[in-house]
Amino acid sequence: MKGMMSYDLMETIRNTNEWMGASARAMASYPVWGLTPHPMFKLLSAWGRVTERSFARMVIKPDWGIRSIPGVDGRDHTVEVETLLDKPFGSLVHFKVQGRAQMARRVLLVAPMSGHYATLLRSTVASLLPDCEVYVTDWHNARDIPVSEGKFDIEDYTLYLVDFMRFLGPDINVIAVCQPAPLTLAATAYLAAEDPAAQPRTLTLIGGPIDPDAAATEVTDFGRRVTMGQLEQLVIQRVGFKYKGAGRMVYPGLMQLASFISMNMEKHADAFQKKIVSEAKGEGSEHDHHNVFYDEYLSVMDMTAEFYLSTVDRIFKGLEIAQNRFTIEGKRIDIGKITSVAVHTVEGGNDDISAPGQCVAALKLLTGLPEAKKAQHLEPGAGHYGIFAGSSWRKNIRPLILDFIDANAPEAPKGSRKPPVRAA
User: Fold this and answer.
1) Contact 342, 408 (CB under 8 A)
2) 363 and 273, same structural domain?
3) Over the stretch 372-411, which tens digit does the pLDDT of each residue have?
4) pLDDT tens, residue by residue, 30-85
5) Are residues 92 and 147 both part of a single domain?
6) Does 417 map to a domain?
7) Which residues form the PHB de-polymerase C-terminal domain (predicted)?
8) Do 81 and 166 share a domain, yes or no?
9) Is residue 77 located within the same domain as residue 29?
10) Both 97 and 13 in a single domain?
11) Whole-model pTM?
12) Which of 87, 119, 126, 268 has its CA 20 to 30 A from that of 296?
């Protein structure tokens, strides 16, 4: 009960701040204040609008917002997001482009489960759609999953990836972004041993902590300082009475958001101050840079406690992937079993989440893979976000990955490939 009350207290604080923002906006916007044209009222109204919107976003799942893409035929093609596999803790979704034959390049984007929704990869998806058939792992918010659905830890996560890869077939090209990189590598190794015919064609790992000890960051330092008992006591709570997952043990998204913001507090405080002044001057807009970024950044989801704790314990502290000791249901998953999947690692020179050296460590573990099937890229000056969604991704990394996919593809067959059948 204590955990549930703590969870509900956080939600109460969030809801109160949203209400305060709405109240300030409403009161300061009364026409009567036009008789007393004091800048205080405009500032109060602007503060209210920004505050209300910000705290409301924290419990809203963003929409993908990809309505159409231009085609080579000169027409715009509408995009439909369809669910191919729907499982309790995550779904496999497909961005179906209407009026276009299936593309030869088929890409599975493995989205992070690290506090944000898969829509964090919106711009990544949009940039790949004109040239690829795109599939994404859409993880569900733990607070909305009933306790009756059972646990979900890193072993379950890995087996979900195995199921998704099997479903999509061996001509899929997998791109794992950040947190899922080590588990995607493990899923590929699992298939290499258990079902070689279902292995993906290529695997690209972007900014992931394959070996967290290869280069220290604030994230890895925190993992070393805190014990598992302290971590469980400090951050794990039970979902409150308001949601379907009431009673489930989770690492709350609001707590993760607080951690994200604290890492760059001055930057965020300056951004909100400028936004409030801009709104007070009448220069703000619905889809300006601030709103576009923070509508996504502030939208957070809960992770199951067992997933969060097993990630810290086994990936960061135990280094099970880095030392090739990862197991699923007691059976060791040998990364050296990967012998035919081309693997590419991408790192950002200024990445302060997964520093250079952490991701490229995957290549040393691939003892059974020929050197000709290994590739690596370090993007100078790029931060963590930039290597999968920023200018570095658009200008340099995306073309490299497409070339890598093409270099490892067999000669394209005539005609288009039939899409996978949607699961019932």
Assistant:
1) yes
2) no
3) 999 999 999 999 889 998 889 999 999 999 999 999 998 6
4) 888 877 778 888 899 999 999 999 999 999 999 999 999 988 877 889 999 999 99
5) yes
6) no
7) 207-408
8) yes
9) no
10) no
11) 0.90
12) 87
Note whether 322 and 343 are same-domain residues: yes
* Strands ordered across the beta sheet of 76-87: 68-70, 76-87, 90-97, 133-139, 106-110, 173-177, 202-206, 342-348, 374-379
3-state SS, one letter per residue, for the chain: CHHHHHHHHHHHHHHHHHHHHHHHHHHHCCHHHHHCCCHHHHHHHHHHHHHHHHHHHCCCCCCCCCCEEECCCCCEEEEEEEEEEEECCEEEEEEEECCCCCCCCEEEEECCCCCECHHHHHHHHHHHCCCCEEEEEEECCHHHCCHHHCCCCHHHHHHHHHHHHHHHCCCCEEEEECCCHHHHHHHHHHHHHHCHHHCCCEEEEECCCCCHHHCCCHHHHHHHHCCHHHHHHHHCEECCCCCCCCCCEEECHHHHHHHHHHHCHHHHHHHHHHHHHHHHCCCCCCCCHHHHHHHHHCCECCEEHHHHHHHHHHHHHCCCCCCCCCEECCEECCHHHCCCCEEEEEEECCCCCCCCCCCCCHHHHCCCCCHHHEEEEEECCCCCHHHCCCHHHHHHHHHHHHHHHHHCCCCCCCCCCCCCCCCC
Residue 63 lies in a domain: no
Domain annotation covers residue 260: yes
101's CB contacts (< 8 A; 6+ apart) are 416
Across the range 295-302, mean pLDDT stands at: 92
Q: For residue 187, tell me if it sits in a domain.
A: yes
Query: What's the CATH number where 210 sits?
Result: 3.40.50.1820
- Please say which residue of 244, 269, 298 terminates a domain: 298
How high is the pLDDT of residue 3?
Answer: 63
- Give the pLDDT score at 415: 38
For tokens 């570095």, name the residue: 392
- Residue 221: the pLDDT is 73
Start-to-end CA span in the chain (Å): 38
Boundary (domain end) residue, out of 298, 326, 356: 298
Read off the pLDDT band of 230 (50, 70, 90): confident
Q: Which domain holds residue 156?
A: 68-228+302-408
Residues 328 and 289 in one domain: no
Chain centroid, CA 380 distance in Å: 22
Q: Domain check: are 75 and 35 in the same one?
A: no
